User: What shape does this take?
Amino acid sequence: MRFADERLRPAVDLAARIDHACPKRVVDLGCGTGNALPVLAARFPEAELIGVDSSPAMLKKANSTGFKTQLADIATWSPPEPVDVIFSNAALQWLPDHQSLFPRLLTCLAPEGILAIQMPAMHNEPVRALQSIVASSGPWSQQLSGVTSAPPILEPAAYYDLLSERVAAIEIWITQYLHLLRGKDPVVKWTMGTSLRPYLDAMRPSDQPEFVAAYSKALRPHYPPRADGTVLLAFRRLFILAKK
Ligand SMILES: C[S@@+](CC[C@H](N)C(=O)[O-])C[C@H]1O[C@@H](n2cnc3c(N)ncnc32)[C@H](O)[C@@H]1O
Assistant: This one.
């Protein structure tokens, strides 16, 4: 929630690009605490909107804002009847096997339905690459062996190859956001609730401070503060819009 504005911006950008005249049913897959639900409600005021997530803690927060939610694993989720828009912001990168997941999601759409996806594309960036390097090179390496963050997503062209023959129209683009972060080691704080989480969850709590300190030290040369103390985090995100 610390960087809620920065994390919401791609959801706003994606929702604005969804070209559907009047969707009746809209689903937010991996809705989390429901940050994007008001954006979707404003974009499609006539639609029945539901947020889906596998985390009861996340859904508790989403429910508290009055939106309809469903506890489900996206890997096996399917709607009772076809939906008009499947929206997903920063969630599908956590799921494996996009080769079968994405075509399956298309089958959940009504005619002229739209799949609208945004996923971070950061695997080769220091913020992500250094996590596995630090994880494998400290006293915690045994505890963290085999632990990874979200697996790499496919190349953009692979999503084109996977989806283009199954849909009437497709758009794929990458936007690089330059997030302006402030405070001490803000890039580390950025990762604490997301990509660093699997490592932190897998280690003894007593090892966490030293691990975080080693990761912070490794990151600093890559994200130097500007003269006013602001740190610039260049963050690439892949967008896919596929219309049935
Ligand atoms: C980074 S959060 C994004 C939340 C929200 N879409 C937003 O934009 O604020 C990723 C969400 O995906 C959910 N998630 C991850 N894997 C999932 C799965 N297999 N099934 C359902 N939800 C999943 C997590 O519980 C988390 O709430």
